[in-house]
Amino acid sequence: MIKLVAVDLDGTLLSSDKKLPRELPEILQLLQERNIVFVIASGRQYANVHALFEPLEHRLGTSFLYIAENGALVVASGRSLYVDALPHELMWEPLETIRGIGKAWAVVCGEKSAYIEDNDPELIANARMYYRRLEHVPDVFAASAEDRVCKLAVYDSAGGADNSYPALRRYEDRFQLCLSGRNWVDLLQPGVTKGKALGFVQKTLGIRQEESMAFGDYMNDMDMMSRVFYSYAMENAFPGLKRVCRFVCESNDDNGVVKTLRRVLELN
């Protein structure tokens, strides 16, 4: 029996135009009636994701949890249950490297806010898409000193895999490197993943792998898939993720998550 459903956001639950499925409120109500925990597992900032789902939270109450910042933060009912923060002093060297990469900019993602130091319109537009709490500061390293930093993100307009990721691989001994989208590379505390955070949730709630289902589309969802039996890659997913999932469902633009939940859980 399924007791937990974990769902990635961008490229998975959200359509390509960043809209939630129209049927989602009904689905959440049906999950609540069956006492199924619903977990949003995103690379986004908690404040950004919470703004999307706040109107729907009453449909799941305490059974609604957030995994944010690619697994560095778990929040329930507005309270941080789990924070895996980066040691602040370790960020200086990779920040200097990022500042030297063309068409790439750093976004320091703290528990309180995210921080950027460049005025580039493309950076600002894309950062605001994922970070509701965003401060423009002269120096992101200094500005984030009093915050708990969940991750150091890179927005790369030239494509993270080919442009910034190769330059940042020198830090793999100190950071967890993660391609979280075509234009995003994340540096996290070693071992931080959505899967590790989901494992914390499962252990806390006493839910087994065989009772868990997850949906995703990109490589930052890979470890999460290893924590569930019912692992679903979206039809639009990165090929590497499809190879590790047991199942493939319809694309995000074809309402794959909603259709699969209705079909598998017989939600009528």
- The low-pLDDT segments are none
Helices and strands, in order, run as: EHHEHEEEHEEHEHEHEEHEHEHEH
**Biggest sheet character:** 8 strands, mixed
Tell me, rounded to a whole number, the average pLDDT: 94
Shape: globular
Radius of gyration: 18 Å
Strands, total number: 14
* Percent range for β-strand residues: 25-35%
DSSP summary: helix tally: 11
Q: Distance between termini?
A: 17 Å
Structural class: alpha/beta
The proportion of residues forming helix, as a percent range, comes to 25-40%
Strand order of the largest sheet: 5-4-3-2-1-12-13-14
Secondary structure elements and pairings:
Layout: E1 4-7, H1 9-13, H2 24-33, E2 37-41, H3 46-53, E3 64-68, E4 73-76, E5 79-83, H4 92-99, E6 104-110, E7 114-116, H5 121-130, E8 134-136, H6 140-143, E9 149-156, H7 164-168, E10 176-181, E11 184-188, H8 194-205, E12 212-216, H9 222-225, E13 230-234, H10 239-244, E14 247-249, H11 256-265
Parallel strand pairs: 1-2, 1-12, 2-3, 7-8, 12-13, 13-14
Antiparallel strand pairs: 3-4, 4-5, 6-7, 6-9, 9-11, 10-11
